Amino acid sequence: METGEEFGPWLARQLKLAGKTQAELAEELQLTRAAVSAWITGRSTPRPTVMLDIAKALGTDVGTVHTRTTDTQTGLPTTWYHRPGYPDGGRDLGNAAAFAFDADVQVLARETCQNSLDERLPENGRPVKVRYTLHELTGEALDAFREAILWNDLFPHYSAVSEGAGNQKVGRVVDAGVRDMYEKGRLVLLRVDDYNASGLIGDDYGDGKFSAVVRRQLESLKSSHGAGGSYGLGKATLWATSALGLVLINSTLSVPHEGRTERRVIGRLELPWREVEGRPYAGPAWFGRPDPDSAGAQVARSWWADEETVARLHLTRENGEPGTSFLIVGAHDVASLDERSSDADDDEMTDDEGADDTRNIRKMHRRLVEALGRDFWAAMTGGGNRLPLLEVSVRSLRNGEVVMEEEQVDPSDKQPSRTRALRAYYEGTTVDRLTEAGHVAARTVPLKLPLSGAPRGTLGVHQAVLLVTDGVDDDGDKNQVHSLRGNRMTVKETGVPNLPLGTNPFQAVVLVGEAAGESAPFAKEAEEFLRAAEPPEHDRWGQTEELTLRWSPSAYRRINMLTTEVNSAVKELVARPKRSTGEGGEALRKALTVKAKPKPKAPSGPVVPVLDGLDATIGEDGEWLITAEVSIPRGDEITPMVPVVQMDVRSGGRPRLDWAELVAVDGCEVQDGVLRFTPGVRRAKFRGSTDVTSHPVRTTLTRLVVELRAGKGE
To answer: Which residues, other chains included, contact 34 with Cβ-Cβ below 8 Å and sequence gap of 6+?
Structure first.
């Protein structure tokens, strides 16, 4: 049974909500004011017989007074508080943070699941459990829900937004959401529940997770340094996915607030500036109990709801485990229009039936499962003494009836090869070389961590772990490298360039930071460095403003060096072994006679290598990635050459670019930017990447010229 709040603080709040003073309560109870004051301060508690009189005075039942797990319903009822317009006439025509993401349930899944992973309670060793529920309401169920959220109070604000919808983007989205609800008589709810998570702890207004999510923008208060989020933007996906800009919240707290943990409820509405009945409103609104401590008791704060209220709001949680339920009201998935599904369900639909419907719950269900399996397969994988960090499922309902059964996302089904690789690493069954099908090869690759605030110098070397296995399973695109860190969400997915012809299909995984093991040297520092190198989408590592400010403008090169090391190690592991000279048809060789041509006499004097092959692509940070082959004439002495890279221009001198990295691949070595060739070789190969800071214009707008020059390359 839930432990109720201490009697004194509870009674004090009920008196504020009811608009009563201690003296007025004492008079109704025919007691002294000192007796009521003693209850408030905790010096004494009322006798059981007095509890009944207190319940009558507060307009509630005696059970509520005894348990104190919810507020009474007297006095100030739940309502919507709309932030007044700015006195200086400023207008916000939408929440800018929401524009960082598309209205896409796959983006929502990535951001919300990452947040739940970040808030997992690690003490008990259990995974965080996340459930996505799509629920379409029609008819009486829709009417009942609108009544529960006080739709009649909201409607004038939506009408005002619709009237000005033609002038700005957010208004058009909201207008379309309202029209869809009325014209098609339906509303899609998308609820995200997590369990074994911290919940929205903290005060309504002070520093804490509650205010960071509900009250503030661009504030990230994560529980650990290995967390995925860092910008405070991920929560904006909740409101971006709602065509009505409305999200309701029910949180069970891991740390009591006001003596309680269960059914802390609030709603937040994001609308653009509007004018209703001659009064301007700034944008956001909150659904809650009026705060008696605010001016005129107008500001709405969270309240401790009863079970009936959370049921009417479709916010009932399945148990008392800590965590949070977010209910997205009017969910839509605009990005689904870019992916015409081949499913039979969609093929048989006409446009009127929902083939191109952004509120089709079957399509949203499938896209959620796909995204969760792709991005969080590693977090759902365990083995040896490593337990999964995450369990996740998706279900779909219509008016409470099952449309699609709850589907537990299985990483072995969604990403079989990569899951096999990670499990082998956890169980200690990896090998040094890939010699048999199903084997998993492991290597360490260095990440040289820079000194904070210094362009040069190394703090230390963190050894990331590379896992490679055959890619014959249905993991998606072949020959891919998935990179992840502490919370085991896939951050980066890239291919390996310039693979030899005939390379067998493979899949690779790179574990960096705490994903390589919390005891790995410099694991914590690697987490901090790579977290700063991620953009708000958390889908790559590269140059960011935070990386530049905290380390240096060239710090991102350390990540490029890691990528180079990973690609080189992958190529070595997947390369086919050369056949020995004794293999093949011995009888056939004896039957063949090939007349050898006399070797031409090598010319005397130095020979000059010639560039005769070039492959160039643009990297993630806008740099040129170049692989070049060199032909070397036969001779006793080979002239050292300097590779020079330039921008091609129509007239004038070509701007010369700097090398960020220049490495030898075969038949040569690099010394101070000069290629020195191995005596007797006829071909050589080198690879390099340009320094983006030396580019005078954006890479995509230019062409490239690469030359080999003798001497110092001037």
So the answer is: none
Question: Which comes out higher in pLDDT, residue 29 or 578?
Answer: 29
599 with 627: CB under 8 angstroms? no
Cα separation of 624 and 618, whole Å?
A: 5
- Where are any strands of DSSP class E within 485-554? 490-495, 506-511
CA nearest neighbour of 441 among 425, 462, 453, 419: 425
pLDDT confidence band for 376 (50 / 70 / 90): very high
Q: Which amino acid is at 158?
A: Y
Rg (alpha carbons) of the chain, rounded to whole number: 32
List the alpha helices (DSSP H) in 482-579.
Answer: 523-532, 545-550, 556-574
Listed in order, strand segments (DSSP E) in 263-380 are 264-270, 274-276, 279-290, 300-301, 303-304, 323-331
Pairing relationship of beta strands 128-138 and 390-398 according to DSSP bridges: parallel
Per the CB < 8 A criterion, the answer to whether 666 and 685 are in contact is yes
The kind and range of the H/E element at 175 are: helix 169-184
CA contacts within 13 A on the Cβ side of 168? 16
**Please, which residues have CB within 8 angstroms of residue 159's CB and are 6 or more apart in sequence?**
none
Starting at the edge strand found earlier in the chain, the sheet holding 624-631 runs: 610-618, 624-631, 683-690, 659-666
- With b for 16 or more beta-carbon neighbours within 10 A and e for fewer, the 12-33 pattern comes to ebbbbbbebebeebbeebeeee
d(Cα 73, Cα 60) in Å, to the nearest integer? 7
Tell me, yes or no, if the pTM score tops 0.85.
Answer: no
Give the pair of three-digit tokens for residue 394. Answer: 């998706």
Residue 353 pLDDT grade (very low, low, confident, very high; cuts 50, 70, 90): very low
Task: Give the burial string for 656-673 (b: 16+ CB within 10 Å, else e).
Answer: ebebbbbebbebbebeee
Q: Write the secondary structure of 649-706 as one string of H (helix), E (strand) and C (coil).
A: CCCCCCCECCEEEEEEEECEEEECCEEEECCCCCEEEEEEEECHHHCCCCHHHCEEEE
pLDDT category at 18 given cuts 50, 70, 90 is: confident
**Which residue bears the tokens 């080189």?**
568
